[in-house]
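Appendix C reproduces, verbatim, an entry submitted by the partner laboratory led by Prof. M.T., so that reviewers can inspect both the input and the predicted structure.
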Amino acid sequence: MKTALIFGGTRFFGKHLVEKLLADGVTVTVATRGQTEDGFGDRVERLTLDRLNRDSLSSALEGKSYDVVFDQICYGPDDAQNAVDVLTGKVGRYVFTSTMAVYDPNGETHAESDFDPYRHEIQYGPYTNFSYADGKRHAEGVFFQKADFPVVAIRIPIVVGLDDYTRRLHFHVEHVQEEKPFWMPNLDASMGYITSEEAGKFIAWCGTVEQPGPYNGAADGTISLRDLLSLIEETVGKQALVAEGAEASPYGVPASWLLNTDKAKFAGYEFTNLNDWLPQLVREIADGK
């Protein structure tokens, strides 16, 4: 990989993806609407476009080609189809950031085969017509069934980090600190996580993995929501107030929601272990970093 185009590289794990590619000597082009300062200076090239507008996409990419395109901001089938149509003949590989949400939170540990995008029945429409999970399912279906270029779909769990603009882990730390009640329906449910830094590195790796297709990616290890709250309680010195009817936790899943990452490991990727970094991350959030 010598050249890469990134849709969505100006914040969160997209910035870590850019940094990893630059460190690997890749010539990176960041495509954005031009509304967010990215901090990369003259280390990257830039395209100004609207990812959700087919004409804008086509005009900006006229006459351009890339070894790999990384798409962080596709949420539905119409936008996936636009990318397929515009980039045919212009890209060597397409890496689509999908989600763990293509699998239902049903208590199972999901392997990639649990959702088959090659046979998924595609429904077209703007991403606003679908739930987040269904939008990503249909987008995967479009990429794998309609594209004439190789596609990798990355299915990652909840991404955490000090730079998490969604502040989902922050929600829990701050609610415990401030003694505000919240609600989780199943404290014994376990979930997987990945840091924003590792998410960026894993996505970059998927640009070079030999075999295309879907890949799960998550840090090794799991933690139940009950144990996560215990970690937060120990860190901040206060008790979590879990109360039915209170504000809903963004981690309020009905059952365990886990990923089997054997496929990526077999292909050579080594994941971190969440027990090595989660306590420190909780401490740093509690300290207001």
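Residues 3-157+195-216 form a domain with the Rossmann fold fold (CATH 3.40.50.720). Additional entries are available on request from the coordinating office.
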